[in-house]
Recover the amino acids of this structure.
């Protein structure tokens, strides 16, 4: 009941836009600079209160106040500042803020949050919240409008696991793999030398089905549902596809021996998992791990049950993070 009420409130807030009609809306960028973060309270919390409550219990939420004050964090940011000429402060050095904070109006307002995974919301949030007009709610939205709404929101930058699972996995691996595409090889290798954590065996299911899980879907929207073995197997494979692309691209940025060795370990870890998958597109991807081939491989496994091939490799609940 509370979630429906909050959705109704949100719809009233955007009624001025919704009155125009949904066709062709929001094609113009929100600002001249393109998409930007609104922050979890402005973009998601009103309609997704249970998900926000889950987020408040995660390390992503808690890290905002703790990371930069730790001795190791200070050491890393000082080293990075020497390379990129930025501030010796984690919140103000862009290289650190990319992964560790959510920047709202040019200021770090939160730790990694909704938009870190689902995309900066300024371009897509109103599309996502428009169920077909000011008097239409989620439970009365037509199937045709829902399909179009999801498609339009995705085109505007929304990353939703049900339609963009690869992109979600890509975001997670870019930060957890010390491989953010917006960072240079020098910045990344300097972080590693300064003691920045880098887990070659980072496994998406451990986090996605663990403390970060926020799957409040019909027919039980009040229950934080775990993935089925079939769903988890798909995500396991997609996560390793994204990891292999991430490791391959990051390694090409630098000749730093320690950094390239770490990225090679990530690549080897991904290949070991993907070797169990018999689908031709996945095998072709492993031979040539480009992003384009990765997307083809992800498309090829849609709807397939891979639990027989990789189910035994899924992490145990006791290993969830």
């Amino acid at each position: 009941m509370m979630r429906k009420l909050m959705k109704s409130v949100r719809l009233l807030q955007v009624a001025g836009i919704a009155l125009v009609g949904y066709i062709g809306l929001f094609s113009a960028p929100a600002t001249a600079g393109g998409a930007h973060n609104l922050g979890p309270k402005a973009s998601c919390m009103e309609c997704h209160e249970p998900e926000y409550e889950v987020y408040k219990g995660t390390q992503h939420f808690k890290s905002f106040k703790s990371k930069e004050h730790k001795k190791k964090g200070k050491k890393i940011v000082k080293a990075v500042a020497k390379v990129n000429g930025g501030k010796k402060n984690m919140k103000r050095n862009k290289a650190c803020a990319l992964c560790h904070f959510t920047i709202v109006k040019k200021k770090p307002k939160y730790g990694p949050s909704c938009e870190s995974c689902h995309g900066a919301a300024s371009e897509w949030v109103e599309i996502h919240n428009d169920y077909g007009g000011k008097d239409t709610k989620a439970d009365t939205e037509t199937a045709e409008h829902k399909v179009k709404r999801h498609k339009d929101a995705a085109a505007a930058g929304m990353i939703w696991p049900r339609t963009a699972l690869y992109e979600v996995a890509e975001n997670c691996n870019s930060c957890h793999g010390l491989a953010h595409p917006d960072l240079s090889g020098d910045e990344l290798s300097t972080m590693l030398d300064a003691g920045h954590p880098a887990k070659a065996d980072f496994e998406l299911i451990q986090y996605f089905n663990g403390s970060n899980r926020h799957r409040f879907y019909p027919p039980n929207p009040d229950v934080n549902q775990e993935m089925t073995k079939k769903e988890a197997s798909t995500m396991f494979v997609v996560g390793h596809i994204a990891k292999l692309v991430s490791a391959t691209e990051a390694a090409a940025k630098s000749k730093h021996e320690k950094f390239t060795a770490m990225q090679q370990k990530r690549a080897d870890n991904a290949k070991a998992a993907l070797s169990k998958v018999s689908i031709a597109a996945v095998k072709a991807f492993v031979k040539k791990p480009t992003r384009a081939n990765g997307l083809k491989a992800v498309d090829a496994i849609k709807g397939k049950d891979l639990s027989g091939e990789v189910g035994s490799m899924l992490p145990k609940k006791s290993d969830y993070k």
About this structure: The longest helix spans residues 229-251. DSSP finds 18 helices and two strands in the chain. Strands lie at 102-104, 107-110. The CA atoms of residues 231 and 305 lie 8 Å apart.
